[in-house]
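Training component of the fellowship. As part of building independent skills, the fellow (R.M.) carried out the full modelling exercise for a liganded target. The chosen ligand was zinc ion. The inputs are recorded below so that the supervisory panel can assess the work.
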Amino acid sequence: MLRPSASTKFPRHPIPPAGLRTLLALTLLGAALGAHAADYSHRKALLIGVDGMQYERLLEAIDEGTAPNIAGLQLGKSYVGGVIGSQTQAPTNSGPGWATLLTGAWVDRHGVQNNGSSWRSLADSVFKQIKRSDPMRRTASIVSWGTINDNFANDISDGYVDLALKCHDVDQCVADAASQELEHADPDFVFAHFDEPDLAGHSHGFTVPYQDAIQGVDAQVGQVLAALKRRQQQHPSEDWLVIVAPDHGRVMPGGYGHGNQTVSEKTTFIAINKPANAQLTTPVVRSSTDPLDNLYGHASQADITPTILKHLGVPLDMTGHRMDGLPLIGQVGARQLAYSIDPTGAAVTLNWRLTGANADSQLLRVFRNGEPVAVLIGAQRFTDSTLPAGTGDLNYTVVTQQVATSLLVERGQAD
Ligand SMILES: [Zn+2]
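Fellow's submitted model of the complex:
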């Protein structure tokens, strides 16, 4: 290391005293070691989608011992379809649902308004974010309902999905192809989508065939997890995140349909093989008696892509961060980020919830369209009254404990 010269009377940068220099050196060394220690090349992820599988019916199956594979994961309640009455609200249907699972963004960003092959997701997908951080990583999307891959056709044609396979509603094709990919290819991220619970629900409602479909798909999940286990015997250094989640709930009491905003249609689950943080395990409880208000205190389907990216070590980019969800592993970020606009349109007030034991001393940074606008300690709201001119959308990002979450403010919707 270059020693500061005694003859340097006016150094360009003030030279810190010796003790501080040592501290700085140690900090730099620590940062370098930290960067070296954080080798994410063996971090990989498997996301299994179980279309239209109702949380309460799954719990029944687990109680009856007919869903042993999903039962082997940590299970938490979640919600789908965004917040009612806000720009994040979407039909509790598969198109917007899977688009949110695969982007970490609500419908106001991904734009997949409903089911249909012509919609194209406009938000950065998990596939794109993984490949952009490391083009050598391999991704796969193996789907029973082909519309999902149509909605991500741009990602596929841009080369962000190395294996894109439609199984045309044949779930066994999904189980076989995902197992093949895991055991005989070298994937970093695999999305496998099963459809039978949704098909059975539409045909039979919450009856025996629906429970049979849960049991059947759980067995296929077991087939895929067995292939993963064989892979890990060959590659013991690999560290796999596994998540199982549906895209939407179903209407009570019959269970035939979905698409609207009832509690049971918005209620889903997330199953994970890693120790989950409070965002999944400890919902924010509101004093409200409105069950929807309390549902929003749980994790959401927007949290899945941030969780995968966190496990894979995809670095946070404040200028490009546009995901509404939070990681379900590691430190907990700012939860339930929401906003209001001043009636004059001159100010935006953001609010969120901090729930950690150190909430009062937590350092937060707020960014607007990637530019820093505030540094706060222990705050749970911030008013931005220095808005740029115009009516363009503003993307706010709140970062705390190295966890970021974003929110789109549509100024056109003021008042
Ligand atoms: Zn359906």
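The panel noted the following from the submitted structure. The chain is about 35% helix and 20% strand. The mean pLDDT is 91.
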